[in-house]
User: What shape does this take?
Amino acid sequence: MRRSKTIPFSWVFINPVFVKETQKQLTGTDCSVITVVGFPLGANVTATKVEETKHVIELGANEVDMVIPIGALKDSDYRAVWQDIRAVVEAAGSIPVKVIIETGLLEEMEKIAACLLAERAGAAFVKTSTGFAGRGATVEDVKLMKAVVGEGLGIKAAGGIRDFQTARALVEAGSTRLGCSASIAIVRESLQMG
Assistant: This one.
């Protein structure tokens, strides 16, 4: 968090347990605090995700990312997936919700379905990955997501983004945000490239 004050990022993404302290540390900056519910597998019951959403917002989260129930999506239980997303969106109120669809675990039609369900449930973004499921963001996945949601939702590419070239390729493919644990190194690399 101290580094985000040195290199000004718009957002910092942290685990729920750190939301309150992170807000305190970032007082006086323009940096927003984002956290996640249903992490990392999306296998929590919906009521748990709803309560977790309400709680992290009370602690000061400015945005909430949620992991979809991947098992339900793989079973083609689209109603359950939609209800899960919708419940979190409603619990968040005016706080933007990003839906992590975990592209590395999905077939193309499942990725399309997940994007459509997120859009119809009122999410603000679709997001490629938690970074914990094998592979993260790819240019191909971002292009597919962009083709599905168009300008209707933001797209956050996350997972495995470790250099400026990859980051730039994902933005060019349609990402409106990037989630990178190597953010500082990427910014430094971009500055060196002039």
Strands lie at 11-13, 32-37, 63-67, 97-100, 125-127, 154-158, 177-179.
